[in-house]
Specification:
The chain is of the alpha/beta class and 286 residues long. Helix content is 42%, strand content 14%.
Length: 286
């Protein structure tokens, strides 16, 4: 990341969520009135990046924003379900410009929310929130963690995280930027949490598990991210990943396949949004 914590990819994701609010049919897959407040769609840089992404993703008919809005919606649906298991903390790993805490529904009042990210990125985000006059809710805590010097456990403990309370963790648009070892460390940390805790995360599959046109798009996007200082390091196979999570000791592991995502979120829509094969979701419950 460059420019004092500014993440081009985090900004790009928020732009796509903002576009969903105006370009796609109702009902929205993700209602996010905050996203448009955090990005300037008219800036020359954002317009150029958006044009570049649109050019890259043209071979696939569905807009690429479908990936970002589906993953957030799925994580938030799983979070809502987790409350019946006693979950009372929500940790957003690699929060970027995530907006859940600023548009949270009434059912989340019982949650203590922690946004985890690099200190510089969080400073950049807080400046965006202030400029947009978006208030910080009382149940949100920023947990600035530089993983080169502080572990996830240490950083969360310093932020007031209660390791005795069942917790929901989300990791969206992050796993591909981590090494396999770093990802395993997160799995181990979540597995050590109280029964009922949960991790929902997105992962990128290898090219041979996608249609050829989609594989070309993901390869180009990986290059786009690497050129901006955010290279992809890890791709994962669903069945191997399920086996690994089971070996870690998670009691339940669910894979949201592209087919299942289509049935759940895209079937019968009045626009061209559709599930992509390259970015998939996994859910692991302690």
């Amino acid at each position: 990341m460059e420019n004092k914590g500014r993440s081009v990819t985090a900004e790009g994701v928020t732009i796509q969520r903002a576009l969903h609010q105006t370009l796609d049919a109702a009902p929205k897959i993700l209602d996010d009135p905050i996203a448009p407040l955090l990005v300037d769609l008219t800036s020359a840089t954002n317009r150029a990046n958006l044009a570049a992404i649109e050019s890259i993703t043209r071979p696939v008919k569905s807009p690429f924003r479908a990936v970002f809005i589906m993953r957030s919606r799925y994580a938030e649906d799983c979070l809502a379900e987790s409350l019946v298991r006693g979950v009372r903390q929500y940790v957003i790993l690699g929060a970027g410009l995530d907006t859940f805490a600023y548009r949270q529904p009434a059912w989340s009042d019982a949650l203590r929310i922690y946004e985890v990210d690099h200190p510089a990125t969080q400073e950049w985000k807080r400046e965006r929130l202030e400029e947009a006059k978006v208030s910080i809710p009382g149940n949100l805590t920023f947990a600035p963690i530089d993983f080169e010097i502080t572990s996830l456990r240490e950083g969360l403990t310093s932020a007031g995280f209660d390791s005795r309370t069942p917790t929901f963790f989300s990791l969206l648009g992050v796993s591909q930027y981590l090494t396999a070892e770093a990802l395993d460390s997160i799995f181990g940390f979540v597995r050590a949490q109280p029964q009922g805790s949960e991790l929902v995360f997105e992962f990128i599959v290898p090219d041979d598990l996608m249609p050829a046109n989609e594989a070309g798009v993901f390869s180009a996007i990986a290059t786009f991210a690497a050129d901006r200082g955010e290279p992809w390091l890890t791709r994962l196979r669903p069945e191997e990943l399920k086996s690994k999570l089971t070996a870690f000791g998670f009691s339940q592991v669910y894979h949201l396949s592209p087919q299942a995502a289509h049935e759940r979120y895209f079937k019968g829509r009045g626009d061209d949004l559709a599930a992509w094969s390259g970015a998939q979701m996994m859910r692991a419950i302690v």
